[in-house]
Amino acid sequence: xxxxxxxxxxxxxxxxxxxxxxxxxxxxxxxxxxxxxxxxxxxxxxxxxxxxxxxxxxxxxxxxxxxxxxxxxxxxxxxxxxxxxxxxxxxxxxxxxxxxxxxxxxxxxxxxxxxxxxxxxxxxxxxxxxxxxxxxxxxxxxxxxxxxxxxxxxxxxxxxxxxxxxxxxxxxxxxxxxx
Length: 179
Ligand SMILES: [Zn+2]
Prior knowledge:
By secondary structure, the chain is mainly α.
């Protein structure tokens, strides 16, 4: 099971995003909900899950935040986040039933986003970049007791990295259209 602390111990520089196409038809290894479109450290991922893995991207903190959510694994959180952002992006989100659904999705997002305060309280940070720095400098023995049980998760914030800021919005439009 994916755990941010264990993942953050990867060798420095290993956790960069690769936009090269992955083998056609591969599912996202994290949420298994949709087709992988990119990879991090050769792990095929969808755009919602990729930021949780891409901890060496220089602007990771603008794209993702640490939250405390022990009840839900990272893959389930990825599915939920995708559903939230699709509901907010759907073409009918501007009016009627679509607007109500978009508002509900936004409330769910805000409830998840608030859990960053618990991550801050328990770990002294809610920054994925800080987690990467701290954990990669911490001796393994000091981390052993927390392996796989931290309860930390990484929430995608609904925006993409600076190299192509509109990439996620374009992906959501395709998903909302059922493509
Ligand atoms: Zn995914």
